[in-house]
Structure formats: structure tokens, C-alpha cells
Amino acid sequence: MLSGMLPRLRSSTTRALRKLCGLAPARDNSLLHPLPGLDLPPPLPDNLGRSPTRVTTLPNGIRVATEDVPGPSACIGFFVNSGSVYESAETTGVSYLLEKMAFKDTKHRGHRNLVHELELTGGNVGASCSREQMVYSYDTLKGFMPEAIEILIDCMRNPLFLQEEVERQLVLAREEVQDLQKNPERFLHEQLNLVGYSGALANPLIAPEDALARINDKIIQKFYHENYTADRVVLAASGVDHESLLNYAECLLNDWHKGSPVEKPKSTYVGGDSRHRADSDMTHVALAFEVPGGWLQERDATTMTVIQTLMGGGGSFSSGGPGKGMHSRLYLRVLNKYHSVQSFSAISNIYDNTGLFGIYLTTPPDFVVKAVDVAISELIAVATPGEGILKI
């Protein structure tokens, strides 16, 4: 009887509160029909086509690319054809430092003022270095795009590289390098390049300690001015009108110097073997081979990415909850079968003209020989007709 009275009590209480507050009585409206007096925008069509990619090249060589996708947010980014492959013996490690020096003091803004402006717009900025490319990005709401474009261009074109800031970042970089061996997977990804290639791709991406000891503001500025030239820059945006971005780019970037033609340094895959003794109860192994072509062979690169996803793998325990990742080929064929294996996953590093594909695994030392044999078998199986990726 009490349970039957509760709904009526809640209803009468609600009516009393609405009356005290001078509100109109609430109506019982069905969720199947629009509320009276509420104008809704037209729904999106069932088949929403992809926004076209528009590309314009400025007279100085900068390419401006956009996709005006729907939604409240937008992202803009600078992609620079620069990275560790362009470093010399003198400039080894500079790309690693440039990532850390991003969005610091410029000719027009101090670092504190820059952070304050980013907080006011709710912006999210980031920088990332790789062996062949540097990326600087800015995410924010579309209404703040004019401010975002100006800030990003200022940080790209007018960095000061103050020596005191360089020294501060060098201290942080040394700590990261010292901690690298505590991250076996990242350490082995770096080693794959150092022993797998000769030439530019064998240049270290993570600056070695001897390089950090000689890097200063002058070396960083020299590398920046030699490599950050207009003909090696792409300004790309998602969720931004092409003509609007082009107007800003023509105004703020048309005087960026073009630079002299630069031939990309050569690299040759040679293969190799590297072993490192560490204070660990587990053995970590990365086994990989070359996949020629790279991103410039778009079909092959896409195929390799799909195969990596389908092979999958991961840890013996899924931190994301029961069943996460357990559908992948390596999980079903390896992790479910060999309980000594702690992790077993497909890996790939793709560059412009080449790439590496393989398996990263973690296992106790007494099972490492068997685990490597299993990894070899899985790599052979995925390339063997009749034993391909779809056959579980």
C-alpha cells in the first residue's frame, strides 16, 4: 500500500513546488512527439557525403589543405618536412628538442601570456617529432579559429629559443633518456631503426646523452632556419572553411622564405641484431622485417595497417575489461594458448619510402626461445596462401 502512495506523493509535491514558484503546471508530453513551440533544425540526411579535401599552394610553396567537416570543433596543424633524418653529427637530437621547445616564448608573446591565451579559448596544443616530420597542432571551438590560426603561426614563425629555456628542456630531456630503459617497448622501437637501417633512418630520434651535452640555442636556431622553409610546410585544417584559412595564410605566411631545394637523405635497410642486458625479470623482444614502399605506396601502406589491426594482440590481461582485444588473431592463437607469454602484439613503423612490420613480445627468460619461434611462425603464416589473416 505504501509503494502505491509514493508516486502520488511525489506528483503532489511537484505540483506544490511549481505553484509556489509561480510556474505553470507541468504537462504530460509524449517523447514520441515534438514539444509544442520548440523549433528543431532539420535532421542530417541518411547518406552524409564526405567533405572534399581542398588544396591550394601559395606562391612561396606553402600548401594549404582543408576539409570543412560539420561539428562545433576544429583542428589546424602545421606539418613540416623535417625530422631526425635531416640531422647531421652536429645537430643530432635537435628535432627531439624542438618538440619540447614548441609553444614557448616568441617575438610577440611570452610563454606565460601564451598559456593564458590558450586557457581563455579552451585551446589544446601539441607538438610531435618523428624521423621524417614535425607536427604542430591546435584544437579548439570553431568560434576561436581566428585566434588559433594567429597563435599557431606566431609559434611556428617567431620562436626565440631562449638559452635559459633550452637549458631547462635539456634537463628534462636527460631525465627522459635515462628513463628510456625503463620503457622496454619504446627502447626496442628505437633500436629497430638503429640496427635495421644504414643512413638517415638510423639517426637516433631520441637524443643520446652526448648530443644533449652539446646542444644549445645557436644549434637549434641554425637547424630551424635551414629546415623550416615554406616549400617544406603544409598548413592543414579540419572543420575550417578553405577560403577563410587561405585568407589568413596569404596575409601571415606569404613572406615566409622558400629556401633552397633539399634532397632527402638516403636510407638502406640492412637488417641486424641488437641485445641489451637490463635489470628485469622479463625478456622483451621486437622482431621485424622491411616492407618496401612506405606511405608513398598508399595501397601497400594501408594493407599493412589493416593487417596490424587484425593481428592485434596485447597483454595477457586486458586492462580495459573482460573481452577487450580478445578477438584478435594473436590473442586467439598465442595469448590464449601460451600462458607464459605476458604480451604479444603486431607492430609497424611506416616511413615515406619504407617501413618495418613485426611482433613485440614479453615473456619470462626460460620461454623466450619458444616465444620467438611462435612469433616467426605467425609472421610466416600471415604471408602464406591458405594461412592468411582471415583464417583463425
UniProtKB/TrEMBL annotation:
GO terms for cellular component: mitochondrion. Residues 63-209 form the Peptidase M16 N-terminal domain. Belongs to the peptidase M16 family. SUPFAM superfamilies: LuxS/MPP-like metallohydrolase (SSF63411). This is Mitochondrial-processing peptidase subunit alpha. InterPro entries: Metalloenz_LuxS/M16 (IPR011249), MPP/UQCRC_Complex (IPR050361), Pept_M16_N (IPR011765), Peptidase_M16_C (IPR007863). One of its GO terms (molecular function) is metal ion binding. Residues 219-383 form the Peptidase M16 C-terminal domain. Substrate recognition and binding subunit of the essential mitochondrial processing protease (MPP), which cleaves the mitochondrial sequence off newly imported precursors proteins. Gene3D superfamilies: Metalloenzyme, LuxS/M16 peptidase-like (3.30.830.10).
